[in-house]
Amino acid sequence: MKKLIFRKITKDTIAFFLLVTIIFGSIVWVIQAVNYLDYVTEDGHGLKTYFLFTLFSFPKIISKLIPFVFFIALFFTLINYETKNELYVLWANGISKLEFINKILVISIFVLLFQIFFSAFLSPFTQYKARLFLKDSNIDFFTSLIKEGKFINVVEGLTIFIDKKKSNNTFANIFIDDSSKAQNRIIYAKTGKIVENNKKKIFILNNGQILNKEKSKFNIFQFEEINFDLSNYNTNTILAPKIQEIETRQLLNCYISLNRKSFIDQENYDFSCEDSIIKEIKEEMLKRLFKPIYIPVVALISCILIMKPKSDIFFNRARNMSFLLGFFLLVLSESLLRYSISSNLMFLFYIITPFLFFFSTYFFLNQNK
User: How many Å is the Cα radius of gyration of the chain?
Assistant: First the structure.
């Protein structure tokens, strides 16, 4: 009988948790996807790149929501049980409150492992893949960004000004400032058009001049037609992977090597493993591997709800205290993380805090069971 009851508790909690995670995650994903439209409207990436980039950002959203959503799901599941007198059925079947609390802790451990999987493995992997989509993009929407009387600088080291854009997709009075190479040059053309050749964007320029500047020398050349290959230029979008996009194994190896002052072979890393980022690595590893420890703590705090029946005059007080304390602890975990690398004392305080809350809450629940 106990197994059936505990199985129902687990099923209800996990089902509600997954449902709320998908709903909240989808809402945040849509809002974030709107913000990422700049990659199309300003940086010239294609819709396929935009869709894949936003899609692969979804696990990052889920990893951030898991602790809060689990707390909400467990909190309202317990309230629902109390409202429907299902908790009374548990006690009537000989299940002690301490047994119930321990079962909730077991569920929270599985959620903790789920969170570590997302934050330490899946999220960095998908974020890195999303960055590769931007890196491999051929700025498909570059042509649509060109407007009359507007400076276009969506690619690094290249600025284009178009005086007129004609109805047949040709341009008049084109100025190009190319400072992407060691030799700077300014190009003027009376007319031009952009064509695609073997998936490469080519700007065909007609009747113009090229002003080359090399050190203090200037050279001017006349031309009737030249092909300006746009595929040689990189978008202004940041393409280098960020710390949160690097796999956990690489970050751990880098952190250990930096602490030991051992030789670092940069070819083994997708980023620059150097002393200047050691604090960032430390903070990222705490976020991925230690921060999930707060999940069992907020699970215990939710169990304060079972201490008083709904008929008790202090039930509403216990409900409010449980929610506010759990919400405060989740906010505290995020705030302390930012200061945990500022000093050894703050680092120790960040490590100790969840354990202090865990054991004090467990002791309180055990005394009032």
Answer: 29
Q: Which amino acid is at 129?
A: K
Interatomic CA distance for residues 244 and 355, integer angstroms: 26
How confident is the model at residue 229, as a pLDDT? 75
Nearest residue to 146 (alpha-carbon basis) of 169, 178, 126, 127: 169
Exposed, middle or buried: residue 153 (CB in 10 Å: 0-12, 13-18, 19+)?
middle
d(CA 269, CA 240): 12
Report, as an integer, the average pLDDT of 59-66: 90
Average pLDDT over residues 160-180: 78
**Residue 217 predicted with pLDDT over 80:** no
The distance of Cα 343 from the centroid of its chain, to the nearest Å, equals 26
Judge contact between 118 and 112, C-beta under 8 A: no
Torsion angle in degrees (nearest 10) through CA of 322, 368, 73, 56: 80
Distance CA 59, CA 2 (A): 35
d(C-alpha 3, C-alpha 24), whole Å: 31
